[in-house]
Write a structure and sequence with these properties.
alpha/beta, Rossmann fold, 13 helices
């Protein structure tokens, strides 16, 4: 079984699906001849042709609107938005059309579209290239949202998203694109770029949407994380000395609430970790769900560790990110209560 970083794993998923399904196609800004700004679609146009992988104008609303029309016609388009920060001009299409089409038409039409986008920080991209808008999509009934933390899951989740009959947003953590990340803030792009992280099958397989993974078993607390923060959580748990169980949510909609409840009921404590700003972030929804379902099992208040409630600070990126130290401190607080 070959080893792949996340870029190669995502490329493999797209290659497999283009080869299997003639109704599948890829389009977006620079995805064709150039192969994508992060090279995820590299070589696909040459292999599968101009009609299956092609460039689109710089019009996010136009890209998503076109994808919706293709999906209603019977195709399975995969649209790339070059950075998740740029998706807001297409939000009306996603909310008013893609998410509602199957319901508005009583099942006569639907939008089996996949929207891929690089997401989060780690490249010093600042306020216009490094945001984490997952809570916006999670709030929209009819959209599904996927955030992988490793190459194996990235390929399997992307294939599952493409094959799903509902619109799925696949947010790809940029800090994990090129190789392993051990959660430390002193690790730079240069120290890990190009290093393969995981064994990934070459052929077709799927990772089911809405099924969390238990990354680390523990008895004293539960940590909920997804994407890049799974790796930060690993380092933070080790630093804390707390025997914490770590769940990688993998998709936030649908959410594997059963696995979350089972873990928190067992440990009695919960710490939620995400990269986005704390106020209004998806951690608030997780906290409410845990409190509603696990109230009598909780031994201390649910803790949230997240980004600052400020516009994304380019010059202070590593301070903005929740690091292992902040998670370790939250775990220790949970143990004290």
């Amino acid at each position: 079984m070959p080893t792949m970083n996340m870029i190669r794993a995502l490329n493999s998923a797209l290659d497999v699906k283009l080869g299997q399904d003639p109704d599948t196609l890829i389009f977006g800004q620079d995805v064709g001849y150039f192969g994508g700004v992060f090279r995820v679609t590299d070589g696909l146009q040459k292999k599968h042709g101009l009609k299956r992988c092609f460039d689109a104008p710089i019009s996010e609303g136009g890209i998503i609107a076109t994808a919706i029309g293709m999906g209603a016609f019977g195709l399975r388009p995969i649209a790339e938005i070059q950075f998740a920060d740029y998706i807001l001009p297409a939000l009306d299409q996603l909310v008013s059309e893609a998410a509602r089409l199957r319901y508005r038409s009583n099942g006569e039409f639907w939008a089996p579209i996949t929207v891929r986008s690089p997401y989060g920080g780690g490249i010093f991209g600042g306020q216009t290239h490094s945001q984490s808008p997952e809570a916006i999509f999670a709030h929209i009934t009819g959209l599904k949202t996927v955030i992988p933390s490793n190459p194996y899951d990235a390929k399997g989740l992307l294939l599952a998203a493409i094959e799903d009959d509902d619109p799925v947003i696949v947010l790809e953590p940029k800090r994990l694109y090129n190789g392993p990340f051990d959660g430390r803030h002193d690790q730079t792009l240069e120290t890990w770029a190009g290093v393969p992280e995981a064994e990934v099958p070459e052929g077709h397989y799927t990772v089911p949407l809405g099924k969390a993974a238990v990354v680390r078993e523990g008895r004293q607390a539960t940590v909920l994380a997804y994407g890049t923060m799974v790796h930060v959580a690993k380092a933070g748990i080790e630093e804390s000395g707390v025997d914490a169980e770590l769940l990688d949510l993998r998709s936030i909609v649908p959410l594997d609430i059963e696995t979350i409840v089972a873990s928190v009921t067992k440990t009695g404590r919960c710490v939620i970790l995400h990269e986005a700003s704390r106020f209004g972030g998806f951690g608030g929804e997780l906290s409410a769900l845990v409190q509603e379902r696990c109230f009598w099992a909780l031994k201390s208040p649910v803790q949230r560790v997240a980004g600052w409630d400020t516009p994304y600070p380019h010059a202070f990126e590593w301070d903005y990110f929740p690091g292992p130290g902040r998670l370790a401190a939250a775990l220790r607080r949970a143990m004290e209560d």
